[in-house]
Amino acid sequence: EATPLLGTFGVVNFTWSPDGQWLAFSSQGDLKKIPVVGGAATTLTTGASGNPGIAWLDDGSIVFLPVGGGLGLKRVSAEGGTATTLVADSLPVVFPFPLPKARGVLYTRCASSCALRQDIWVVDLRSGAVHEVVAGAANGMYLPTGHIVYVRPDGNLFAAPFDLGSLKMTASPVPVLDSVAVLDGQFPMVAVSASGTL
Questions:
Q1: Contact 146, 161 (CB under 8 A)
Q2: How far is CA 180 from CA 106, 146, 161, 189, in A?
Q3: Do residues 82 and 45 touch, judged by C-beta distance below 8 A?
Q4: Is the pTM of this model over 0.70?
Q5: 10 Å Cβ neighbour count for 2?
Q6: 60-89 pLDDT, tens digit each
Q7: Under a CB-based contact definition with an 8 Å cutoff, are residues 20 and 36 in contact?
Q8: How far apart (Å, rounded) are the C-alpha atoms in residues 104 and 130?
Q9: Element spanning 35, H or E
Q10: Of the residues 3, 41, 119, 192, which has the fewest C-beta atoms closer than 10 A?
Q11: How far apart are CA 54 and CA 26, in angstroms?
């Protein structure tokens, strides 16, 4: 049975905490969290974009898109405080997705517009280095099987084994599903749970 959470009306950008007890969301430029059992929302930091993408890492930090076109990624403690720049970029990014044990964050990097081109990148949280993982795809997500899945602009979803040491795919991707809706030709309408349910 669905239960409305007061204080979240109109929110379109949110994610679950790793333990499933909280939701983090952006609202009117603020990054907030609220317990799923209900209660007051807590503001964690300001300057959060409404573009698609918040990632709650299992080290107790949250990665989000900053206001101003979603250029790069910022990171803040799930307890709140001052946000720091995780990835500085001159191009828009969307869909950050956490890797296990705070190893890194997958994200989609766009051309000047996400409608023109999207590529999946990863930031190494040990070194801060970034590199491309998949060209011409969006919404990279890590599965508990050790694979990543992603969607091409034509709505085809692919999977490939992914090494958490090198942060690279270790074999060629294989098609898994077709006809995934891609909103406005930019945003694949798909999500994966921590248990691997798509």
A1: yes
A2: 20, 22, 21, 7
A3: yes
A4: yes
A5: 3
A6: 999 999 987 668 999 999 999 999 999 998
A7: yes
A8: 9
A9: strand 30-35
A10: 3
A11: 8
